Structure formats: structure tokens, C-alpha cells
Amino acid sequence: MSNLAAIFKSDETRKAYNALSDVQKIAYQARTNWLLQAHPHQIMPSGDWWAIWLLLAGRGAGKTRTAAEQIWWWAWETPKTRWLVAAPTSFDVRSTCYEGDSGLLAVIPPELIEDYNKALHEITLVNGSMIKGIPASEPNRFRGPQFHGGWCDELAAWDYLQEAWDMMQFGIRLGKKTKLICTTTPKPKELIVKLNDRDGEDVVVTRASTYANLGNLSENFRKQILQYEGTTLGRQEIHAEIIDPEESGIVKRKWFKLWDADKPFPEFSYVVQSYDTAFTDRTNNDPTACTVWGIFRPSEDKGACVMLLDAWGDYLTYPDLKPRLLDEYESLYGEPGKKVDLMLIEDKGSGISLIQDLQRAGVMVRAYNPGRADKMQRLHMVANIIAAGRVYIPESMVHEGMPRDWAEPFINQMCSFPESTHDDYVDSCTQALRLLRDMNFLNIDPPPPDTDMYIDERKPRRVNPYAV
Q: How far apart are CA 76 and CA 81, in angstroms?
């Protein structure tokens, strides 16, 4: 009771506490003890203007304890309400959010818990409120249930981040004012960046580093994690900094060369349209991406280069995709106007049927099969072409030194991979550049020098002992 006594500054406060029931006193004492020991970043922001509290914190900064203490208090102070706990997997919900050292069962006084259903991830409090756990790895599980608010744990680690977030938002709909606390060590995921940008609107962002809670961490942990101080990983995992994904990308923005906006387009000798079609016709996940490439020589003394002539992505079902591609095939590029020589489509999913239909329509289409090469290998195979300055992007007509607006999403995705949200442009680009390289349009490796074979009589001859 000594902690409680520290906040009793008036007789009125003491009388109000004494008027509480025994179970209410237990709840009040647990909450007060927490607030007295919590770090500043662990205290809920003031005001009722925000709907989402985004806590970006380093490893060991106390994110789990903060959210567990806050979610049970929300459930307690408003009886007969329902609250969500979402984590990357079902195992994370149970082992971290519920049964972990800083989880709900560790911070809620046992006297306040009426029932804990381990199989259903449900805690029912004696005041009628319920805290329900749902794994983000199964986004459709968010359909149906409805809540007054919730806790999203390690949001940046959700595999189906946008889909799970969208489904969850439809269920956070009860009461006059919903509340959501999102705790995570940040990654440069699109949703995390957007929420961070909404700081001061309907989102309040709190930041904390591992150092803020260092005194409560083991000495061994301190030694291990602080080895990463000064590194990019340390900036993210210790200081909770949202790292620009282009910093760790395989392809660098400076590798692309800009084609001067004041110069007319060159005459292209070969034009390829490269498509990465959605694997299925589910339009809510994967877009179809198209990049168009033209082969040209910047000058007589330079080797062949390639220019990005167009790049677009769209969510198209198969019935809409075929006429779109037929229309794109009729496009002309450069001066005086070059027709498409080849349409390149990866033969997977909807691409297989698309290739067959386009061939019947008289389109010069070729199937692309990357074999067993994964996306990372495919990009590494052609990254040297970009690094050699052989890939051009048209310069903006408005902003000097910048690419045209339609090319920016392509460059951003290329330079952010593998941290980019989508990789459709990456697939479209790599298959086109690989084909053009294999066709000897973009051979950047010079042939070996044509030297005569000779024997230097001054050096002793080497003899294979096994051939004697």
C-alpha cells in the first residue's frame, strides 16, 4: 500500500479508494503500481483525439509489458467490452501476449480473471469484459468478431500485413471511441510508414530505444545487442528507426542514368514489353506489372544501352488483362516510332493461358521461365547491367534531375527490394534484362584478349606426374 499512499494527496482521494469493492481495490492498486514504475514512453498519451497509439521501440524497450498493462486496463475500466489481441502467429499470441513474462496473465491480478480459455485465446474478466486473441497469419479470422479496440503486437512482422490490417479494421467498431495500440520494432513496411506519417492526425507515435529500459535487461543481453550499435541493423533494432529501404537495396538509385528531357528519344533497334502477371485473379493482392524496354546506342563509340519507355501496374482480372495487352502491343516508341518486337510473359499462373491466347491472336509473345532461380538470384544476375550505367530512365519534363513521375514507383521498388511491399516491377525488369543480355544486346563483359599461345622458355615446364 506504500505506492498507493504516495498518490493520495487528499482526503477525498482516500475516501474514494475506501469506497471501492475489494476487487476494485485490487485492480486500482495494480494499475497504480504500474504507472509509478513505468517509463515515460510506456504511459498512454493524453487526450481523446487519437484512435491509434503507435509505439515504435527497440528490442527490450518494454513494448509487450506496456500493451498488456494498457489493454487489460481498458477492458477493466469499461465492463462488458471486447478487446482484440493480434500477433504474427497463433504461437506468438499465446506464448508472448498471453503467457509470456510480460504478457496478460503476468500483469492482470488473478482475482480479476474469471476464465482463461487457452485453446480459444480468450481471457474473461470478472466484470464481463473479454480479451480475444487472433493470429494475423490468418487474416480471414478477423471476419465476424467485433471489438471496442485492441493490441497489435509486432505489427511490422505480420506476413500478410496489409490484408490482416484491413480485415481487422472492419472489426474495430464498437463503442463511442475505439482505441488501438500497435507495438513494434519498426521495419520500412508501407503500412508502418503510413501510420508514422499520420502522427498528429488520428495516430499518436511514441518512440523509445533499447537504452530506455536497459536497467531491466540482463547483462548478457546488453553486451550482445549493443554490439550492433552504429550499424544499420542497430538503428532499426535498438533505436527503432524506420530505415529507408533503399539503403539496404541491392540496386542503387544512382546507378540509373537519366536521359536528358531536352533531348529527343533515340531510334530504338529493338523493343520488348515485359509482363509479370498476377499469379491468380485475386485483385486484392498482386497487381500485373508491365515494363517496356528499348535498345539503342547513345553514341557510335558506346555499347548498346536500354531505356525504360513505360512502366505501369494495375489490378486486372484475366478477362480485362488480355484486351489491355493487345492494346499495349500496338504502341509505338521513340523516334520515328518503333513497334514492339517481342512481348515477354512469365509462364506461371494466369500467364500460361495468356501466352496461348496471345499467340493465337498473332502477337509475337515469348514465355519466360526463370527455372529454379528465386527473385533475389534473378536480380543479382542483371544488377551489373544497371551498375554499369547501361540502363536509362527518361528525365522529368518538370523536375530537373528527377525521373518522370510514372518511372518513380518502378525505381523505388527496384531500389527497395527485398524490403519493398511488392516485387512485380522487379520480376518484370529482371526477365527483360536477362533476355536482352542473353540475346547479346546487353553484353557488358568484353571478350578476352586475342593473344597467341606461347611457351616462355625461361620458365621451367610443368609436367603432370600422372600422365607420365
A: 9
d(CA 381, CA 29): 62
| H helix intervals, 252-402 | 318-329, 350-360, 375-387
C-alpha cell of residue 52: 491509434
Q: Three-state DSSP class for 57?
A: strand
> Closest Cα to residue 210, out of 382, 57, 405?
57
Biggest distance spanned by C-alpha atoms of the chain: 108
Which amino acid does the sequence have at 344? L
233 three-class SS: helix
User: Cα(242)–Cα(223) distance, rounded to whole angstroms?
Assistant: 23
Cα 176 to Cα 148, 299, 442, distances in angstroms:
9, 68, 62
Yes or no: say if 310 and 275 are a contact pair by the CB < 8 Å rule.
no
Pick the range with the lowest mean pLDDT from 108-122, 159-173, 416-430: 416-430
- Report the pLDDT value the prediction gives residue 436, as an integer from 0 to 100: 94
Length of the chain in terms of residues written: 468
Instruction: Give me the DSSP letters along 339-353.
Output: ---EEEEE-STHHHH
For 326-354, write each residue's pLDDT tens digit: 999 999 998 888 999 999 998 877 788 88
Q: For the whole model, what pTM was predicted?
A: 0.72
For residues 51 and 178, the answer to whether their CB atoms sit within 8 Å is: yes
String of DSSP letters for 238-273: TT-----GGGG-SS-GGGSEEEPTTSPP---SEEEE
* R_g of the chain, CA atoms, integer Å: 30
Angle, helices 318-329/350-360, rounded to nearest 10 degrees? 50
Calculate the alpha carbon distances from 370 to 178, 347, 375 in Å.
Answer: 48, 9, 9
pLDDT the model gives residue 452: 52
